[in-house]
Amino acid sequence: MNLLKSIPKVDKFIKHKTFENYSKKLITKLAKEKINRLREDILSEKITEFKEEDLVKNIINEYKNITKPSLQNIINATGIIVHTNLGRSLISEKSFEKVKKVASSYNNLEYNLKEGKRGERYSHIVKTLQNLTGCEDALVVNNNASAVFLVLNTFAKNKEAVVSRGELVEIGGSFRVPEVMIQSGALLKEIGTTNKTHKKDYENAITSNTSILMKVHKSNYSIEGFTSEVELKDIIEVAKEKNVIDYFDMGSGHMIDLPYNLDTKEPSILKIMQHKPSLISFSGDKLLGSVQAGIIIGKKELIEKLKKNQLLRMLRVDKITLCLLEEHLNSYLKNELDDIPTLKMLHTPIEELEKRALYVKNSLNTICKCEVIKSETLIGGGTTPNRKIPSIALTLEYKNYKPNKIEKLLRDNCLISRIENEKVLLDFRSIQKNELDEIIAIIKKVFK
Ligand SMILES: *Cc1c(COP(=O)(O)O)cnc(C)c1O
Predict the structure, then answer these.
(1) Which of 111, 205, 243, 350 has its CA 20 to 30 A from that of 438?
(2) N6-(pyridoxal phosphate)lysine occurs at which residues (predicted)?
(3) Does 239 have pLDDT greater than 70?
(4) pTM beyond 0.90
(5) 171: Cβ below 6 Å to ligand 1?
(6) Which atom of ligand 1 sits closest to the CA of residue 177?
């Protein structure tokens, strides 16, 4: 068994020159594993020869694989702006610059600089939200799912929360409204039918044990035909009359009017606030275009009660979240909307998208068959269900490659496309202006 004898000893082996610039601890771990496997393979006669140089190469490869960041940037050419699988809203580098200083220094996260004593973590965004939306008070939690849970747990534990059967939705990631309601301790009281719920259904449902009338944004589905749902302003009216809380889980929640006439069915946060709701909540990283967060705004006395719930400690947000959120809410206040990439993408004129698509096409003309076409895309992220917005796409064809093959080749290079009518499309609604040359380079590399 000469081969067995020639297996290197770990202690000596890890002194190999190649390993000099790598972590000794991790190299030792990997070397032990590889050498053990090598011994087993020799004993079972799976291998009959080996080279020390190959062993070294193997270990370095494994090292690089393990230490490579798993989260990486990709190019989103699906057209879907708020893509939950692809990280939802982008944060501009400009906002990161402002946050960098605060996050890498000590800061006044929970310190009142004026009075020199303990301050309030949530205070930082309250004034901005008050000025922006006219709310009395505000609170930020980890995401909108937490917001829903906190509101129901605080106000509807062992009490009835009234909700329309048409709004008991399941959102992506198995967030099911009825199940979340039950988990929170609320007694779910369903009213109306799948297609129709009337104002009187809310009125009739209220008993002495009712605490909340809840409305939920339908997010990912719409019903057509013989339907009616009760508008928030009517629910607010009933709630006031009967002295219970009205709460709207807005889901995405856009601050200002949407383009492409989407607003006819989807009032903005600013419009909703005109009706003076008790509480509404929405996501930070859907159409608001900021970081992952759940934002709750409404009446001061109710927000005070939410702050007293112990759960808040478990749902609290980090300084980086607060800092970025403040930055983005300020962009709304100052009307500097170009600093919010989600809005910028949503509003980019078709002519501009066409220009970008042509730029890519002209660089690829000799490489593959491509064509600039009009397309339609969804905004995504549980916003404006089933309503498409106009876009521009580039179709890609190469030799006799099947669309699935092209899609995979692009994906292997972190370019995510979509397949439509048996063609691979790059949709420019979600592609950034500074990504065009990289896209060209990837396609040239793949179709060589
Ligand atoms: C997306 C959504 C949620 C969950 O929000 P997250 O910020 O993803 O936690 C809750 N309710 C509705 C209606 C939604 O659309």
Answers:
(1) 350
(2) 286
(3) yes
(4) yes
(5) yes
(6) 11
What is the β-pairing status of strands 423-427 and 137-141?
Answer: unpaired
> Is the separation of the CB atoms in 265 and 386 below 8 Å?
no
Q: Is the confidence at residue 194, as pLDDT, over 90?
A: no
| % residues pLDDT > 70 (the chain) | 100
3-state DSSP helix/strand/coil % of the chain, to nearest 5: 45, 20, 35
Nearest CA among 87, 102, 151 for reference residue 318 = 102
Burial class (CB in 10 A: 0-12, 13-18, 19+), 217: buried
Of 279, 242, 253, the closest CA to residue 151 belongs to 279
Say yes or no to pLDDT of 426 above 90.
yes
Q: What pLDDT, on a 0 to 100 scale, did the predictor assign at position 229? A: 87
Residue 14, both tokens: 């890890």
Residue nearest to atom 15 of ligand 1 (CA): 251
151 Cα to the center of ligand 1, angstroms: 14
Is the pLDDT at 1 greater than 70? The verdict is: no
> Which numbered atom of ligand 1 lies nearest the CA of 220?
15
CB of residue 96 inside a 6 A radius of ligand 1: no
Pick from 396, 316, 321, 336: which is nearest to 364 by CA?
A: 396
- For ligand 1, atom 12, the nearest C-alpha belongs to 251
**3 state DSSP class of 231:** coil
pLDDT, average across residues 421-436: 97
Instruction: Find out whether the beta carbon of 143 lies less than 6 Å from any atom of ligand 1.
Output: yes
Give me ligand 1 centre to Cα 78, in Å. 21
Euclidean distance between CA atoms 289 and 387, whole angstroms: 19
Ligand 1, atom 5, residue with closest C-alpha: 144
Please name the residue whose Cα sits nearest to atom 11 of ligand 1: 251
Q: How far apart are CA 92 and CA 90, in angstroms?
A: 6
pLDDT band at 385 (very low <50, low <70, confident <90, very high): confident
pLDDT of residue 289: 97
Q: What is the mean pLDDT of residues 93-103?
A: 91
The mean per-residue pLDDT over the stretch 22-37 comes to 96
From 140, 174, 283, give the residue whose CB has the most ligand 1 atoms within 8 Å, as the site to mutate: 283
